[in-house]
Recover the amino acids of this structure.
């Protein structure tokens, strides 16, 4: 049962990464999305077959996540979900052609380390401590402030993006805001998985409707759809998705453990491994750049130095002045004028004015 949950979590990672990459590719061909017009935004999204394919992949990842929460504790599940960032960064580089910075490449190694630490802390007895439900008052006391903070943070990022003379944002504020919304959604998924009973579907449906979980899923799903797709169109997927996933995981581990009352490992070594994996995941978030790095300019060969003009020697009193140097033979340009004159221009020889042969004849006849 325990390793079935690990396999389901890895499958969810593949589905989520594939879905985000397909949606990002589809968003590049759509008109600019605006959160002020949600109906128009949804209409544009539904008109793209590629975006619909990405949404189906995300829906399949949602189903796999339900299986994960029935087999693994919250902290262990979220630690494995972070490993999907490695696949996302690789896919965004290969499929989308997004350039990853050196700091982002270093975060891949940190994410793999977090996955190893969390998986090493798992034991078979962890499945016996999985909680199914949370007190509604405690859940709402955590979810409502988190939703408010996420919306305010997204609004603040929108206002900063409209300022002139600003640095192009890398999308970290957007990722944090959407991550808080999806963190609340993750707690709701955890509650739905605990109440899901396939042996008695009518009773399970009635129990779900009396709980706050489906309503939280509805609010976070609709709001997250509008905000996440707008942010994903404006910023790189290799920044938005890792930040969003990291915030979601940290929020779910910290608040979900309190809301659902799942105990942490009693063994000090296993506790250190699990908390260490969560701390590494948080470090990944702090290490990502807040602004896009400007492109490195191409190096050009320096221009050859100009020759220094030789100073003209001054004549000594009593000596005759040196003869003037003849003008350099430069290319001469002849420009005809209205009166038939030819202006002979030389670079160093000055300008001389003469008349054409036809004008000389006219002058002789008039005389």
């Amino acid at each position: 049962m325990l390793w079935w949950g690990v396999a389901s979590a890895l499958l969810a990672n593949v589905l989520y990464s594939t879905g985000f990459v397909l949606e990002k590719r589809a968003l590049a061909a759509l008109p600019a999305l605006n959160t002020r017009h949600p109906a128009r935004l949804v209409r544009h999204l539904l008109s793209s077959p590629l975006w619909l394919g990405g949404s189906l992949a995300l829906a399949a990842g949602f189903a796999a996540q339900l299986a994960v929460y029935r087999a693994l504790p919250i902290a262990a599940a979220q630690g494995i979900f972070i490993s999907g960032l490695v696949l996302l960064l690789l896919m965004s580089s290969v499929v989308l052609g997004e350039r990853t910075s050196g700091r982002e490449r270093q975060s891949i190694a940190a994410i793999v380390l977090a996955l190893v630490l969390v998986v090493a802390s798992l034991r078979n007895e962890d499945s016996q401590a999985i909680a199914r439900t949370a007190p509604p008052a405690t859940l709402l006391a955590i979810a409502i402030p988190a939703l408010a903070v996420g919306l305010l943070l997204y609004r603040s990022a929108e206002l900063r993006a409209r300022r002139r003379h600003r640095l192009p944002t890398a999308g970290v504020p957007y990722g944090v805001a959407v991550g808080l919304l999806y963190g609340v959604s993750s707690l709701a998924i955890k509650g739905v998985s605990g109440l899901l009973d396939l042996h008695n579907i009518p009773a399970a449906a009635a129990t779900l409707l009396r709980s706050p979980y489906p309503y939280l899923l509805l609010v976070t799903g609709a709001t997250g759809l509008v905000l996440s797709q707008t942010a994903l169109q404006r910023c790189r997927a290799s920044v938005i998705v890792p930040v969003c996933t990291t915030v979601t995981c940290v929020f779910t581990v910290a608040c979900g453990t309190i809301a659902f009352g799942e105990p942490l490992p009693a063994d000090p070594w296993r506790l250190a491994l699990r908390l260490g994996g969560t701390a590494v995941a948080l470090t990944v978030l702090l290490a990502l750049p807040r602004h896009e790095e400007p492109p490195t300019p191409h190096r050009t060969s320096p221009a050859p130095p100009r020759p220094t003009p030789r100073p003209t020697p001054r004549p000594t009193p009593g000596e005759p002045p040196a003869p003037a140097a003849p003008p350099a033979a430069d290319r001469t340009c002849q420009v005809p004028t209205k009166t038939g004159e030819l202006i002979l221009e030389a670079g160093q020889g000055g300008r001389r004015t003469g008349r054409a042969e036809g004008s000389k004849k006219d002058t002789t006849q008039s005389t």
Observations:
- Residues 2-27 form the longest helix (26 residues).
- Strands lie at 333-336, 341-346, 350-355.
- Residues 294-302, 328-367 have pLDDT under 50 and may be disordered.
